[in-house]
Amino acid sequence: MSRKPIIAGNWKMNLLQSEAKALFDGIKDFAKGFSESQLPGIVIAPTFTSLSAVASEKCNCGAGCDKIAIAAQNCHWKSSGAYTGEVSVEMVKDAGCDYVIIGHSERRQYFSETDEMINLKAKSILAGGLIPIICCGETLEQRESGITDSHIASQIKAALDGISSEDVAKSVIAYEPIWAIGTGKTCDANEANRVIAMIRNVVKEVAGVSAADSIRILYGGSVKPSTIEEQMSKSDIDGALVGGASLTAESFNEIIANTMKVSV
Ligand code: PEP
After folding, report:
1. Model pTM score
2. What residue numbers bound the domain in which 11 lies?
3. Distance 179 CA to ligand 1 centre (A)
4. CA proximity to 249, closest of 6, 64, 20, 36
5. For the segment 12-71, what is each residue's pLDDT rounded down to a tens digit?
6. Exposure of 219 in the CB half-sphere (CA atoms within 13 A)
7. CATH number for the domain including 102?
8. C-alpha of residue 9 to centroid of ligand 1, in Å
């Protein structure tokens, strides 16, 4: 089955509002030259403080740039209350988001985000009408001790626990080997494809064949314009979650353009 690829840019804790707007405009200007059907799905994840500013740059000209989606990099699962410093699904939706990234390894590592929290967030995001981008991945130590597949399968089972097949089908997963994030070391494309196919099998086990066929599973970890073509030529890789190379319009647009050469 053919799944529309997604190229998502995770800007992490970078860019002030004016810089975020300028970068978004650079991506929008590129996307304007194409129709929606020619482009992959494009998702941009600015910081919370730039969400509204970036969303206000979205246009309505009828070209592919209209469809650039905005993602938050995190959210809380509760709808409101005494949770100082947190932001709810309704709030990020109000700021213009369509997606929320959850379970990024930086949040698991530095902010103690657990599989249980990620599951609560996924449910709350879906209940709020947004789409979770659920990140998973192994450390170098886990890879070297041969537990990559079991570790990732358990992350995915926990994240999707209690979510209906219909909701799983519209969700997005990003396989991001932690040793490849921000290190310049990309996972071999065949190996990334193997792990992603394994993730798809786990999805089939928990949510059925139709959800497994529909769910988009991205690769993330030092994706660059020079790596994306090979990655996108693989059967199970449905796109990329891009960190460093999403911080200039030049490299991010080149990743989109190279994606369009092989799939879309
Ligand atoms: C990420 O943060 O999700 C990521 C994959 O970063 P980078 O592309 O810089 O490795």
Report:
1. 0.97
2. 6-263
3. 10
4. 20
5. 999 999 999 999 999 999 999 999 999 999 999 999 999 999 999 988 888 877 889 999
6. 30
7. 3.20.20.70
8. 9
